[in-house]
Amino acid sequence: MGPSFSTDSSQVSTKLTIWESSLPMLVNHSAEPLPSPDGFFTTYNKEATHFRLHLQLPSARLLRHAFLLAEANNVRDNRGQILSTFGTVLKMDSTKKVVKKLSGEGHCSAEWLTSIGNEYSQIVTFVLTCEESTEKLEPMCRGVMERFRLANQPVPSILYVDRGCCRAQGPTAVETLFWSWVDSGTVVRLDIFHWIHRFDAAVRTESHSKYAVFKSALAGAVLAYNRADLELLIKAVRAKDPTALNAVTDEDVVRLFISREQLKRHVRRVTQGAQVMFRLTDLAIEELKGPAGLDKSGVSLFKTPAAIDEMWAAQQRHLECIQDPPDINMYRVARTTTINKVHVPYYKCLRGNNSLEGFHKALPNMIPESTPHRLSTASTPAAGSCSERLLMSPLMSCSGWNTCLARVQENRASFLLRTL
Question: Domain-by-domain residue ranges, the chain?
Answer without folding.
Answer: 85-191+353-419, 205-333
